[in-house]
C-alpha cells in the first residue's frame, strides 16, 4: 500500500459569491513522495467551473498550484449551500513524464494501478456588507427591517406605490432613528394589516409584474450576454490551445519531413556515386577481358610460329635412310 501521494491545501474550495460576477480560488498540491506523481481534477459541474491547469505532473517533493474559477451565476442557491463536488486523482508515473504525456487511461482503476482520490466540497461565502443571506454557525441571519413613523392616512395613501423588495439595506439614518421607529411601527402595524390585505391582490400584483417585466428583462439580457461572452472567451481559449497544439504538431511534422528529405538526398548522392563506381568497374572489367583475349591470340600465334620453326630445323626420314644405306655399302666395299 502507498502512503498519501499528494497533500491538498486547503481541502475546501471557498468562493466569494456575488450575482453576475466570477469568483476564483487557488488550491496547492504537495508531492510527499520521492516519485513523479501525475494528477487530474474532475468536477460534478464542468460547465459551471473552469480549472487551469486540470492535469499536471509533480516532481518529487515539489508543489503545484491550480486555479478554479466559478462562472457568473444569475442567482444565489437556496441558503447559500452548494452541492458541487471536486475530485483530485493522483497516481505514480515514470520519471521524465511530461504534462503532454498524460492520458485518461493513466487514471483508470481497471489498469491495476494505485489511484489516490481526494474529494473537495464547495463553500459559498457572502462578500462583506452584503444583504444576501449567509450561513453563520449553521443558522441564517438577516438584517432587521425598519419602517418610518407615518400618519395612518399618509401610510394608506402610499400603500399603492409599495413594491416588494427582498433585499434589505441599512444606512446611517436608519441606525440613528432606530429607537424612534420601533414604537411607531408597532402602533401602525395593526392598522396597516387590513389595508395591505385589501390592496395586495388588486394593486401590488400589477406593480410587481410591471417591475418584473421592466427591470428583469434587461438584467436577464445582460446576464445572457455575459454568459455568451464567457462562453465565447472559453471557446476562444480552447481554440487557441488546439491551434497551438496543431501548430506544434505541424512543426514537428515539417522537421521530420525535412530530416527525411535530407536523408533521401544523402542516399541519392550515395547511390549516384555507387552507380558511377559500378560503371567504372564494368568498363575496367571489359577492357581487362579484351586485353586477355588479345594476349591469348598473340600466344596462339607465337606457339604456331614456334612449332613451325621446330619442324624446319630437322632432317627428312628418307634422306636419313639413303645416307645410312650409302654408308653401309661403302663400308662393305672397303672391307672386301
TrEMBL record:
* Short name of one Pfam family: Motile_Sperm
Return one Gene Ontology term, BP aspect.
endoplasmic reticulum-plasma membrane tethering
Transmembrane stretches, start-end = 313-333
Domain of life here? Eukaryota
Q: Which GO terms describe its cellular component?
A: endoplasmic reticulum membrane; plasma membrane
**What keywords are assigned to this protein?**
Coiled coil, Membrane, Transmembrane, Transmembrane helix
Q: Which residues form a coiled coil?
A: 250-305
Q: Which InterPro entries match?
A: Ig-like_fold, MSP_dom, PapD-like_sf, VAP
Q: What's the protein called, per UniProt?
A: MSP domain-containing protein
From which organism does this entry originate? Vitis vinifera
Amino acid at each position: 500500500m502507498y502512503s498519501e501521494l499528494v497533500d491538498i491545501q486547503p481541502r475546501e474550495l471557498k468562493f466569494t459569491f456575488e450575482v453576475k460576477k466570477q469568483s476564483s480560488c487557488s488550491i496547492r498540491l504537495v508531492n510527499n513522495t520521492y516519485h513523479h506523481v501525475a494528477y487530474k481534477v474532475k468536477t460534478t459541474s464542468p460547465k459551471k467551473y473552469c480549472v487551469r491547469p486540470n492535469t499536471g505532473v509533480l516532481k518529487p517533493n515539489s508543489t503545484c498550484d491550480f486555479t478554479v474559477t466559478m462562472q457568473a451565476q444569475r442567482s444565489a442557491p437556496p441558503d447559500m449551500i452548494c452541492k458541487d463536488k471536486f475530485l483530485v486523482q493522483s497516481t505514480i508515473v515514470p520519471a521524465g513524464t511530461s504534462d503532454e504525456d498524460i492520458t485518461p487511461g493513466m487514471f483508470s482503476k481497471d489498469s491495476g494501478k494505485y489511484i489516490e482520490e481526494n474529494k473537495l466540497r464547495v463553500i459559498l461565502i457572502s462578500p462583506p456588507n452584503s444583504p444576501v443571506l449567509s450561513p453563520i454557525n449553521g443558522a441564517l441571519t438577516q438584517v432587521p427591517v425598519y419602517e418610518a413613523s407615518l400618519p395612518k392616512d399618509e401610510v394608506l395613501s402610499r400603500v399603492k406605490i409599495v413594491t416588494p423588495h427582498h433585499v434589505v439595506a441599512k444606512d446611517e439614518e436608519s441606525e440613528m432613528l432606530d429607537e424612534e421607529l420601533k414604537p411607531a411601527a408597532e402602533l401602525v402595524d395593526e392598522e396597516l394589516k387590513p389595508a395591505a390585505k385589501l390592496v395586495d391582490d388588486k394593486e401590488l400584483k400589477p406593480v410587481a409584474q410591471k417591475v418584473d417585466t421592466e427591470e428583469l428583462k434587461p438584467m436577464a439580457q445582460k446576464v445572457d450576454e455575459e454568459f455568451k461572452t464567457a462562453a465565447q472567451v472559453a471557446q476562444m481559449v480552447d481554440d487557441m490551445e488546439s491551434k497551438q497544439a496543431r501548430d506544434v504538431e505541424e512543426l514537428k511534422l515539417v522537421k521530420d519531413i525535412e530530416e527525411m528529405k535530407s536523408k533521401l538526398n544523402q542516399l541519392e548522392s550515395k547511390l549516384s556515386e555507387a552507380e558511377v563506381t559500378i560503371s567504372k568497374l564494368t568498363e575496367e572489367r571489359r577492357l581487362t577481358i579484351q586485353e586477355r583475349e588479345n594476349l591469348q591470340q598473340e600466344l596462339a600465334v607465337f606457339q604456331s610460329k614456334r612449332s613451325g620453326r621446330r619442324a624446319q630445323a630437322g632432317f627428312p626420314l628418307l634422306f636419313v635412310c639413303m645416307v645410312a644405306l650409302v654408308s653401309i655399302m661403302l663400308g662393305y666395299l672397303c672391307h672386301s
